[in-house]
Amino acid sequence: MKMKSFLLFITTLMLLTACEKKYKYVETVKEQSILRGSSIQEKAPIIISASADSSAYLEAFTKYCISQKVYNNMRKEGLADYLDVPIGFKLYDEDGMDITDISFATRLEEEERISTNILALDDVVNSNPTDGTELAESKIDSTKIEELLPFFNVNKDEFDPKGKTWYEPKSAPKYTNQNGIYLYFAAQEGKVMPLRFRVQYYADDWLFFNKIQFAIDDNAYEYIPSHTEHDNGNGGMIWEWFDEALTGSDKALIYALTEAKSAKMKFIGRQYYDIKTITKSQVADMKRTLELYRAMGGSY
User: What end-to-end distance do the CA atoms of the chain give, in Å?
Assistant: First the structure.
């Protein structure tokens, strides 16, 4: 009987192993060099083992998010001047077919979950970065929530089976083609998600900003977004913006902004810069958002 059990175990193991397929993950980077400038290159392939194309894709997407996270952390520390910049990836199946654009039902939901979790690693916003912050009974300040909610638009995603609900200041720009700076966040299944930071720049000429310097009550701060978006229209006007989850390394800036008596921000572009004043109402809304976030169980 023991021999039969052993043979059954070996057979089962072989079948499970046979079910796994091999995939190649190839990351695309912008190589930076003191002498050669920059160039687009593909890194050496990494083998991924998975039982299905969708599982392989999610593992590849996780690897790419981690690469972005590492680069952005190094960049914020001023150590990324000559590091490779991750800009994309490809995933190939055993036949060499590119399946990067594979479609499956939960792709968008899983991508959002993975990217949120990776952003929260190490310098996390929440006490439990992987799952968000529990809305524990002892952490909820119902009185404060009731006091602050009139200042916010509360929008529930009717298509999200987990009931994700967004909390944004009512004064936040409704469209991207407006100047703005604000904090906001989402709650889902009784958990507060990472606090988010959005800044929008609107002007009549491109700036292509990649850094913002802040002058707050005679103190200087700096924020380097991981990625900025650009668009144009409205008779030649342009708009540039970023929207990303905050990390622990951003606390000094956020605390200063929410308590600021006077504040300005300097958008540093490729060749030029532009300075915008942060209004008292914008400061007040950022402070309210942080207070609501904490009142709902968030930790930042």
Answer: 59
pLDDT value of residue 77: 66
Q: What is the pLDDT of residue 84?
A: 77
Q: SS3 for the chain, per residue?
A: CHHHHHHHHHHHHHHHHHHCEEEEEEEEEEEEECCCEEEEEECCCEEEEECCHHHHHHHHHHHHHHHHHHHHHHHHCCCCCCCCEEEEEEEECCCCCECCCCCCCCHHHHHHHHHHHHHCCCCCCCCCCCCCEECCHHHCCHHHHHHHHHHEEEEECCCCCCCCEEEEECCCCCCCCCCEEEEEEEEECCEECCCEEEEEEEECCCCCCCEEEEEECCEEEEECCCCCEEEEECCCEEEEEEEEECCHHHHHHHHHHHCCCCEEEEEECCCCEEEEECCHHHHHHHHHHHHHHHHCCCCC
State how beta strands 211-216 and 191-192 pair.
Answer: unpaired
Look up the pTM and report it.
0.59
- Residue 22, amino acid: K
Per-residue pLDDT tens over the stretch 86-134 = 888 999 999 999 999 999 988 888 888 888 777 766 543 333 333 444 4
Q: With beta carbons less than 8 A apart as the criterion, state whether 126 and 136 touch.
A: no
The mean pLDDT of the chain is 84
**pLDDT attached to residue 19:** 65
Provide φ and ψ at 141, rounded to 5°.
-115, 85
Question: Within 10 Å of residue 67's Cβ, how many Cβ atoms?
Answer: 19
Q: In the numeric block, which tokens belong to residue 50? A: 């998975």
Answer whether 294's CB lies under 8 Å from 183's CB: no
